[in-house]
Amino acid sequence: MGMATIGVISRITGLNAESITFYRLGLGALFLLGYLLLTKRHAGLTTLPGRQVVISGSLLAAFILFYVQAMNYTQMANAILMVYLAPIVAAIAAHALFNERLAAAQVSLIGLALFGFAMMQEFRLNLDDQKDVIGMGFGLAAMLAYSGFILTNRRLPSHLDDRTCAFWQLAVGALVILPFALWQPAGLTASAWQVPWLLAAGLVPGFLALLCAVMAINRLPTALYGTLAYCEPVAVVIFGWSLFGEALSPLQLSGCGLVIACGVAQAWVGGRGATSSATTG
């Protein structure tokens, strides 16, 4: 659930999305580097990352940037559930690009998840609220970037150490987002009271949650890991409601539950013979 805290930190600090993304990736990379040095797993750092790792790191930066931007304009629940359509989009893309077979049950779950998302929107496309439209646009961009991240991760060389690969992805992502952060009027400056929150962004979602996710992928069955991963959208919905008063209607809550249930079921159906290779960074 540590991944879910980035939205809370972004809302509380009020910093621009580029700065939040840079600190989350950059400080996360530094914390992970310290871990690799302490555990003597740093041998893999002597080799520069390959093209696939650079691409996945760039997609990770784009995903987090668009996700944080989405939460600045629309409800946190809308943003996170849009993002969590990414595994479904990735499954469809893998079917088209990599000839991976989609079972009838998976197709049904994809349809149900899309229906659940329509329930979240209360079966209407509200274009009157410009901020909400912008937020959903950023959410769509985040979902596409995350889908690309998932697909790229599945094509990473099998000999790569997961922790070393995660470090390079964070480092590349931080370097990619750095020019955009410096381009902002405020740059990377932060007030004294914001610094602990930025450190928390690097430590909790940037390092601890990522490290736990990598370790869980290596130790848990894919289906079980996929189920536990859906604690993140649940936590985001709870944070949005309890901390920022973002209440959902019964229909929206039902849609939220349907999307999450379909995601869990998809993890079980798709994880029987596969190995998971994607986290939320």
UniProtKB/TrEMBL annotation:
Cellular component terms per the entry's GO annotation: membrane
Main localization category: membrane
Record-annotated EamA domain positions: 3-120, 134-261
Subcellular location: Membrane
Domain of life: Bacteria
Pfam families for the chain: EamA
Membrane-traversing stretches: 20-38, 50-70, 76-98, 103-121, 133-153, 165-183, 195-217, 224-244, 250-269
Family: Belongs to the EamA transporter family.
Protein name: EamA domain-containing protein
